[in-house]
Amino acid sequence: MNSSEKMTTLSQVMEKLSQRGIKREFRMNESGEMKLENSGKNYLPSDLNILKTYRFEGDSNPDDNVVLYIVKDLDGNMGMIIDSYGAESNYPGQDFDTFLRDIPIQESNEFSF
């Protein structure tokens, strides 16, 4: 893919991931439990691996900064974690940030598009 074709928006990357079957999102609930969408399982950071990280910055507004993580659990289930970064986060407090920092990173070129 040449630089003029490189995906630069969150929606472009999410569409490509959807085409590869990655449609569900890992989310932390108000109780500080990380769950995969439509799953009752609670995850610890050690149950997950970050395979790829994408950062998106708004052209004119720093509040438009978003990071998308492609995450795989120990059973092979894959999903995304999406979070605003900068001044505001989707998750209040330090629980989410601490959880995210503790997830092992195993970068995969499979998702370099």
Number of strands: 6
Described by the principal axes of the CA atoms, the overall outline is: globular
Largest sheet: 3 strands, antiparallel
Number of helices, counting only DSSP H or I runs of 4 residues or more: 2
Strand order of the largest sheet: 1-2-3
Notes on the protein architecture:
The protein is of the alpha+beta class. It is built from 2 helices and 6 strands; from the N terminus they run H-E-E-E-E-E-E-H. The strands form 2 sheets. The protein has a 3-stranded antiparallel β-sheet with strand order 1-2-3, with no helix packed on it. Strand 1 and strand 2 form a beta hairpin. The termini are close together. 13% of the residues are buried. The N terminus is likely disordered.
Please describe the structure with a list of short key phrases separated by commas or semicolons.
alpha+beta, single chain, 3-stranded antiparallel β-sheet, disordered N terminus, 15% helix, 113 residues, 2 helices
Task: Outline the fold blueprint.
Elements: H1 10-19, E1 26-28, E2 34-36, E3 42-43, E4 48-56, E5 66-73, E6 78-84, H2 95-101
Antiparallel strand pairs: 1-2, 2-3, 4-5, 5-6
